[in-house]
């Protein structure tokens, strides 16, 4: 689904010396630049305020979050108020998970409680297993993410759990495409999703070169530094995140408790 910006009414913007932008669908690494370009264009038109309506945004990834941060920086430099007027649950969730809520005037919320020592389900637990292998292509990110969300719906996972898993899976799949696919359109990305009513376990495999995830610096909300946000979001949203290399390629395994 594409990002669909609906531009503000010109008369309202001129009379009130401010303007608003409304977006729907997904804001992801393919189209996040549209949001930034839209804000950048408005900042040169003598507006005193730029407000974003993200109430119809179904999913936003680290690229979209980075575009929001960059838009705020540009607005601050231009001495223009930048505000998120309305946000969907998905947008509020990723901003809260990232730790950037104060930057956007949003109240922090109780997002997660990692439970590393939680006991695994009994051996006779009925697991539902979903496996897919796809050729590396941007559309695969959305397709495989929906496979995982569908699995969560089958076991009645909460809305918050679904949002958190969507964040982590989206980042892992984006990394698999961008960094773990030496030949776009030919390399393969694999997904295995095992779920029961208590826990979901996800494995994503790519064909990339080995890398050290611990060498990636975490973002710093205090400095509004947004580099390294993908792996950081994965670790924040899930209870367990483990990486393996040369297996072949790279594999990330993630677990989240649902009960």
Which structural class fits the helix and strand makeup?
A: alpha/beta
The spatial strand order of the largest sheet comes to 4-5-6-8-7
CATH class annotation of the largest domain: Alpha Beta
Number of domains: 2
Put simply, the count of helices is 7
The mean pLDDT is 84
**Oligomer state of the chains in this structure:** single chain
Question: How would you sum up the global shape?
Answer: globular
**Can you identify the CATH superfamily of the largest domain?**
Histidine kinase-like ATPase, C-terminal domain
Global Rg: 19 Å
How far do the termini sit from each other?
A: 31 Å
How many individual β-strands? 8
Low-confidence stretches: 1-15
CATH topology of the largest domain: Heat Shock Protein 90
Secondary structure: helix percent: 25-40%
Described by strand count, sense and barrel closure, the largest sheet is: 5 strands, antiparallel
Order of helices and strands: HEHEHEHEHHEEHEE
The CATH architecture assignment of the largest domain turns out to be: 2-Layer Sandwich
What percentage of amino acids are in beta strands?
25-35%
Descriptive report:
This protein is α/β, with parallel strands linked by helices and 259 residues long. The protein has two domains: 10-104, 2-Layer Sandwich (Transcription Regulator spoIIAA); 128-257, Heat Shock Protein 90 (2-Layer Sandwich). It contains seven helices and eight strands. The protein has a five-stranded antiparallel β-sheet with strand order 4-5-6-8-7, with helices on one face. A three-stranded parallel β-sheet has the order 1-2-3. A hairpin with a 3-residue loop joins strand 5 and strand 6 (199-205). The longest helix is centred in the middle third of the chain and has 20 residues, at 159-178. Residues 1-15 have low confidence and may be disordered.
